[in-house]
Amino acid sequence: MPSYAFYQNKIIPLEDAKIGIMTHCIHYGTAIFEGIRGNWNDDKKQTYIFRLKEHFERLQRGCHVLNIVLHHSIKDLCEKTVELVRKCAFQEDVYIRPVAYTSSHALGVRLHGLEHDFFMFVIPWGPYLDVEKARCCVSSWHRPEDNVIPPQIKAAGIYINNALAKTEAVNAGFDEAIMLSPDGHISEGSGENIFLVIDGKLVTPASYNNILIGITRNTVIELAEKELGIETFHRAIDRSEIYTADECFMTGTAAHVTPVSEVDNRVIGNGEIGKITAELQKLYVRVIRGEYPKYMHWCTPVYGK
Ligand code: PMP
Questions:
Q1: How many A from CA of 153 to the centre of ligand 1?
Q2: Of 131, 37, 53, the residue nearest 90 (C-alpha)
Q3: Mutation pick for ligand 1 pocket among 154, 158, 159, 216 (CB with most ligand atoms within 8 Å)
Q4: Which pLDDT score is estimated for 32?
Q5: At residue 291, does pLDDT exceed 90?
Q6: Under 8 Å between Cβ of 222 and 280
Q7: What tens digit of pLDDT does each residue of 26-76 get?
Q8: 45 is catalytic
Q9: Closest residue (by CA) to atom 5 of ligand 1?
Q10: Lesser CB count within 10 Å: N end or C end of the chain?
């Protein structure tokens, strides 16, 4: 099935969407991107795009930090996304990748005096971590300080840090890396936020622990509070607290809610998916597939009315 891209204001076949080798962002990583999921509901023959507006709001904040001018309003971007996903017509889970970038064919490290453009494309994409439970290690690569590269924005260039950590972990036989903040506290996975369950409460690194503020993180916090009556503490977490936590899981648009069974060869809990993790995972899957009426405001249907 062919895929399509929104490129230079038009929907065109993905294979025809090409950028030149002098494009500024390729050389310096000066782009802001997003990862958005469209979740296929086979009973309703519908794709629900999850928290579309929130993803573009984060994109817009990132553009502001990098002085990238977005030529589209958030409303316009949301409409274009629905149109593009509908055109692709995949009957499976999809992943939408919008990118706002410095498009000038110009060399020179800077953010000023450049042109900007935006594209996005859609591909079918199933589970990201592709494991029922993840074995993780703490990475030797730390997250950068906000005054090195702001980790709260999804800037392309920062992902060198994540890629170093991910490949180090996979080469060492693990599924995913857990990175520490520069001051040695738990920060996040290479593409996921991290949660612990301690004494029946959720604990997750705070914004000052050099994390990306995940939309799945926010979703899980809200579901835990509203549906399970479980409070979340946002605070600095010591490395050894993970080893002794009752449960641990990761969250992300690509990874959904993935239980962590082991960290640094220490088994977490009994090594199986924890009770609270399982409840949150079940809720989350229903919510993103448009099966939970209370949270339909987070789901944008692609087909028909
Ligand atoms: N941290 C990093 C570094 C990420 O790349 C992602 C994926 N966007 C996340 C956390 C999770 O964010 P979200 O739930 O918004 O996908």
A1: 10
A2: 37
A3: 216
A4: 98
A5: yes
A6: no
A7: 999 999 999 999 999 999 999 999 999 999 999 999 999 999 999 999 999
A8: no
A9: 191
A10: C
190 close to 176: Cβ distance less than 8 angstroms: yes
* Sequence letter at residue 234: H
Round to whole Å and give the CA distance between 14 and 50. 22
Q: Is the separation of the CB atoms in 119 and 5 below 8 Å? A: yes
Q: Which domains does the chain have, with CATH numbers?
A: 4-124 (3.30.470.10), 134-288 (3.20.10.10)
Residue in the block written with tokens 């594209």 = 119
Q: Can you give the pLDDT at residue 128? A: 81
